[in-house]
Specification:
The structure is a homodimer. The first copy, chain A, is α/β, with parallel strands linked by helices. In chain A, about 35% of the residues lie in helices and about 15% in strands. A six-stranded parallel sheet of chain A has the order 7-8-6-9-10-11, with helices on both faces. In chain A, strands 2-1-3-4-5 form a five-stranded parallel sheet, with helices on both faces.
Chain lengths: ~350, ~350
């Protein structure tokens, strides 16, 4: 259990994508965030009050969230120093980086002296088992992507909210550090031992016999040379009935790898469906989710329309324009009536 | 460093495939194995002298190798009790199971008291990094499979030996516990944290500028619902120039999963080539390796011929019949002359 309210750390970051954990909390748990802590050299903001640790404590913050995600997940000296300042001020510290807070002796000692807690969100649960691929009941949707950090979590949460507004039962199943901080639960999939990737997802989304949906946050991309193993195991463990492909049309190359181009959407979708079929033979792609944050509204709407036409699937920016086109199509694919539709019929 | 000579543990096992680590050492480091330790209920043998711990000590054994691989990698009570007997007799204990010897307090205490060492072969190396997919120099061959435990390690070692007999430089790169015990080095890939799968292979097989080959031991299968994530990351990290597909024609279903059939060879080969191309665009499949141990020789040779004809690639049981057909074809594909051929020309 990680205690809010939160102070969100931006530090010295100038990487818009790298602060996605802090931004995710600011977006989806804004009521629990008292402010942001950034240094003068950071041009970024979450549009929260800028505070230092002392001001944040006075405003009620109990936990500093080191919401910076970088490839490899190491902590720099500046980050450790800032965490120490927060600890000395009496705040808990939460981190989703690969390198654990508990593996930095200075932090462990300071936390013990100050009587505060360190939360390593990326610690996988104990007792994971190897996946079996045994077919299990339940409606599951998985978001997949052309790349890392293209909006899979946002799309999944937007789909959840749209389904809930229709009276459908829909649960967000988090697989990354930001999602886990938002949901309060989940599996940090990239930190799981490789043999247990699919098994971890089977455990996260056990069989369910109701009409509800598990909406599973995707990770990585089958076309990312660093992380495709995670994406493959996630596809196999999810046994998804429905896939939604997520894409950021502003991305010039694979994240962190200037020497790798993004796959085209049709190729990417076909590959994901092919891999998913191993454990879910009837899986269907039900929509495309674009992250259009860098496009003007008119351009964004036009791109969604063109992309949807080209792929023969509904396409939207689910966070910006709502997820209804995808929900409508998915329910018709599976011949599902929503409670609201039943009432009005 | 793990000290031989070895006593190989079979315990109560009645699973021929499950004792593959003990069998691998008996096969490829037979000169370092003094005997096998099996209980009366085990019908298996490695054709080594049957010994208990006391006899093995007298014969010079320094380390008991718990060479049993089971899905999930947990130790049972009987195995722990036997390990304690060996420790009390003054032997080191080596294990390739997921569950670590050092995580069993009774073993740790007993080893400390007896002054012997515990070797967890499945501990991944420290300091692994995320893969980059950056193209690197060097000749690399990767064995891939229709399933787990179909003979990828045997095929890789047989290919190495055949290449060395021709005067080619060829190094075995181990990725599993048995291979690591044989090679004395390697990366236990299924125990690596998921984000580092491809990076671990990039580190295991760095760029090489000579004419030699890194022959990389494959793991799992793209078609195994439990382990395909590992296989995917391995394909991406390897940047293989050549793939060899390994298959056990006696396998009725995917290992451990009666509800999953094996893929057909052509489908499996095409999928592996497709995944490999992401980081190695010019990758070529150069042969098929069948594990024909359960077939009569005539049947085995006929099946190799039929399989090779059907797929348009050389097919052999490299351990039983030699790897030359695959080596010949591979060298011609890449227009490589062997030192011996140069001499005779």
């Amino acid at each position: 259990m990680i205690f809010g309210p939160f102070l969100l750390y931006l530090g010295h970051s100038d990487d818009e994508v790298g602060i996605k954990t802090s931004r995710g909390l600011a977006t989806f748990r804004r009521q629990d965030c008292v402010g942001e802590w950034r240094h003068d050299d950071s041009p970024l903001t979450l549009d929260l009050p800028r505070m230092d640790v002392t001001e944040a404590r006075a405003a009620g913050a109990r936990t500093l969230v080191l919401g910076i995600a970088n490839a490899g997940g190491q902590m720099g000296d500046a980050l450790v120093e800032d965490a120490l300042v927060a600890i000395h001020a009496g705040m808990n510290v939460a981190s989703g980086l690969h390198q654990r807070l508990r593996d930095v002796p200075a932090l462990v000692q300071a936390a013990a002296e100050a009587g505060v807690a360190l939360f390593d969100v990326r610690d996988p649960p104990a007792g994971l088992r190897v996946g079996t691929g045994t077919r299990r009941a339940g409606n599951r949707l998985l978001t997949v992507g052309t790349d890392c950090s293209v909006g899979k979590m946002y799309a999944t949460l937007a789909l959840r909210d749209a389904m809930r507004r229709r009276g459908l039962s829909a649960d967000f199943r988090a697989t990354g550090q930001t999602g886990i901080l938002i949901a309060g639960d989940g599996v940090p999939l990239d930190a799981v031992v490789a043999d247990f990737i699919s098994g971890a997802i089977e455990a996260l989304t056990p069989a369910r016999d109701d009409d509800g949906w598990d909406l599973i946050e995707g990770q990585g991309s089958l076309f990312h040379p660093s992380f495709a193993g995670v994406s493959t195991g996630l596809l196999h463990g999810a046994q998804a009935r429905a896939l939604v492909l997520c894409h950021d049309p502003s991305r010039a190359h694979m994240r962190g790898l200037p020497h790798y181009r993004l796959p085209d959407l049709a190729t990417c979708l076909a590959a994901n469906v092919s891999v998913a079929r191993l454990t879910s033979p009837d899986v269907q792609a039900v929509g495309i989710a674009l992250n259009t944050v860098k496009l003007a509204e008119e351009d964004a709407r036009r791109l969604c329309a063109e992309t949807g036409d080209a792929l023969g699937l509904p396409c939207t920016d689910p966070y910006r324009f709502g997820a209804d086109p995808i929900i409508d199509w998915m329910l018709s694919c599976f011949d599902i009536s929503t409670p609201a539709m039943t009432v009005s019929a």
